[in-house]
Amino acid sequence: MSSNKYIRDIWVQVMLVAILAAFGALIGRIVQINLSQGPTLTAKANRQHTAWRPILAQRGAMYDRRGRLLAGTCLTPSLFADPSMIRNSVEAASLAGNLVQKDPITLYQQLVADPNSQFLWLARDLPQSVADVFYSIPAKERRGLDIRREPKRIYPAGKLAGHILGAVSIDDRGLEGLELKYNAVLAGHGGSERFIRDAAGRRIWLLSDQYQAARNGQNLILTIDAVIQELTEKALEATCTKYKPESGVAIVMDPTNGEVLAWACWPFVNPNDFGSYPIDARRNRAIIDPFEPGSIFKPFVAVAALKHKVTRPGERIFCHNGAYTIGGRVLHDHHGYGDLTFEEIVIFSSNIGMGILGQRMGNDALYEAVTAFGFGKPTGVDLPGENGGIVRPRHTWNDYSTTSIPMGQEVAGTALQLLTAFAGLANAGMVPRPRLVRAVIDDSGQVIHDNSQPQFIGRAAEPQHARKMIEILARVIAEGTGKRGNVPGYQVFGKTGTAQVARSDGRGYKPRAYVASFLGGAPAPAPKLVCLVSIREPDPRVGHFGGTVAAPAVKEILEKTVKYLNIPPVETGEPAEAIPIRAATE
After folding, report:
1. Is this prediction's pTM over 0.70?
2. Of 110, 165, 261, 349, which one is least surrounded by beta carbons within 10 A?
């Protein structure tokens, strides 16, 4: 009995020693593993049981001045992978390739490039039908693959205002237009989250201390009015369809504050499909393409001639019956004029009369006038890529410049520069800085930045001289080259221009190539609107004069806009003194 007990006690002791030895070995192994492989194994466990996901910010919207949505965001399904959860990359690539119609080999290479990655886009901006098919596949077969909805930029009005709205990349970064200029405001800031997941990759709980919320972008309120924009685009399209030009531009502005009400470039582009258009079509020609303005430039020099007192209203100037020899150069008018008053020189667009005014002013005064109206430098409009035009340094001007510049040659301006300068005349000599954004607001409607107060480039003309020029330009419509720009019931003022297109090599002008333009505004003498239509290289077999090609489009835009905005005609009192109706040139 005692012998058995003794043997049993020894066995128990042996077992205890063995167990303690085993525990010791286990603890030793744990210590060894922890010391030698601990960081690696911990990282592996974290990858298996925790996951990271980006939280995408929603891009801010753009609205017209009356709150109509021009650019917004919707959510579309996109397919992504978590390579760390995929057990068989070949099968996953095959499934994804069949689902989104992509090469499985390419997808496989993406999946195995970084097997520890937890987030990889495979296909984006998918139809809802693809998402529906994906969710019909058993969960175990699509392990490591998932669908998430991400923001997609949409432009509900299609091509409306496409050149100024611009476009964004698939990653919501601004590429052109306002989308690019205000990308930092519109884009917001993305966030991220980390969470615990189970073996199947399903979320269990969020790690709150590793969560960073996204901050959505802010919204823009534009100066554009969608209705005026639409009627401007229709008028421009009809003109370009008829005259088959290389391109065309139309802009409408409030001259009192520089707010742009409409801005169109033809051919149009649809920002919903911006990338499908050739680069040339995507260019915002109104601020990128300067051109010699021709006769629409004459009012800016003529008003400066009044400022410098080299002439006066009513002065009669001999215009040499259509041919004026200056040194080795001969200036021509399309019709031979004898004496013309200062007013008639502008009304009938006499090149010789303007050349004589240029001679009286001299190059210093001419240079001052040109730069005072903003030519030679960007207007500062809130769009990227603006061209400052071409005004050569004063020291390079010669005797030819003295008579060429008053006719709108040897200088080049963009469509926006020309309309902005014209707005300065309409605004009693103060040139406004053009604007496209009135305010930046957040999602609650709180104003973050108020841009509604007008800014000015500077004073280019004295008020009395600017008002006199508007009177003269009203007579251009009634009696001169701009009759086709007349709006019944309103006193429209304006100036036509037909300029030659300079050769790209700088050697003269392209044959039979013109820019047909018309600057117009209404109502005089208290203008509320100014408008430019400029048509580059219309088919000369159909027509190429500014008064023929561009003036009717300005008439249509102004006529519909004054009615839409309920702008009443302004009483003008007694009509201006009648002058003989004569043939006019541009």
Report:
1. yes
2. 110
How far, in Å, CA of 210 to CA of 271, rounded? 37
Each residue of 534-554: pLDDT tens digit? 999 999 999 999 999 999 999
Beta-ladder partners of 498: 516
Residue 567, number of CB atoms within 10 A of its CB: 17
Arithmetic mean of pLDDT, 69-97: 89
Q: Using alpha carbons only, what angle is made at residue 186 by residues 181 and 189, rounded to the nearest 5 degrees?
A: 120
β 62-63/219-222 pair status: parallel
Rounded distance between C-alpha atoms, residue 487 and residue 531, angstroms? 13
In a domain, 18, yes or no: no
C-alpha span between 273 and 405 (Å, rounded): 42
Place of tokens 């139309």: 250
Q: Are 515 and 534 in contact (CB under 8 A)?
A: yes
Domain co-membership, 413 together with 525: yes
Count of the separate structural domains present in the chain = 2
More confident residue, 583 or 121: 121
Predicted local confidence at residue 282, as pLDDT: 93
Gap between the Cα atoms of 21 and 125, Å rounded: 62
Same-domain pairing of 257 and 115: no
Asked if residue 114 is part of any domain, the answer here is yes
